[in-house]
TrEMBL record:
InterPro entries found in the cross-reference section: LD-transpeptidase, LD_TPept_cat_dom, LysM, LysM_dom_sf, Transpep_catalytic_dom
Protein name: L,D-transpeptidase family protein
Record-stated family: Belongs to the YkuD family.
Organism: Bacillus salitolerans
Span of domain LysM: 1-45
Domain annotation L,D-TPase catalytic: ranges: 56-163
Length: 164
């Protein structure tokens, strides 16, 4: 997988977002000075496939509070979701699923799918009555059965597009 460096990013922030180490990034990219990155620079993220090689993509509409699963650009399923509350809004942008954890415990329900933005993910919930509302700390909540179904389809590396 290739990451394009954005303004303000550091090798440390990129490593955190993709849940990898600075050392692995340095090794995969033959970086001589880890303190020097420039916007537009291509960084190889080891261990993650290119989102373009995966037939699935996820599109999230914050205003409609829906998550749409596409397979080969064909809409396969629409799921209801919860989003971040006003003070903890769900970030918009283009992300990928970097890892997953079944049964993470607490309010995260039956599955956690980490996004390539530290502290954010798509997860289940222990409060199904919250679905459809703006109540999370910025994550995307789904019914447990829905997030388990979604996780059974999409591998790590799947593109996630979050739009207003």
């Amino acid at each position: 997988m290739i990451h394009i460096v954005k303004i303000g990013e550091t090798l440390s922030s990129i490593a955190m977002n993709y849940r990898t180490s600075i050392g692995k990034l340095i090794q995969a990219n033959s970086i001589h000075n880890p303190d020097v990155l420039y916007p537009g620079q291509k960084i190889i993220i080891p261990g993650l496939p290119s989102p373009h090689s995966i037939p699935y993509s996820i599109w999230i509409s914050l205003s409609k509070r829906t998550l749409i699963l596409y397979q080969n650009m064909i809409k396969r399923k629409v799921y209801p979701i919860s989003i971040g509350k006003i003070l903890d809004q769900t970030p918009t942008g283009d992300f990928i699923i970097v890892n997953r954890e079944p049964n993470p415990g607490g309010p995260f329900g039956a599955m956690w799918l980490s996004l390539s933005k530290i502290h954010y993910g798509i997860h289940g919930t222990n409060d199904p009555s919250s679905i459809g509302k703006a109540v999370s700390a910025g994550c995307v909540r789904m019914y447990n059965e829905d997030v388990l179904e979604l996780a059974s389809f999409v591998p790590n590396g799947t593109a996630v597009y979050i739009r207003p």
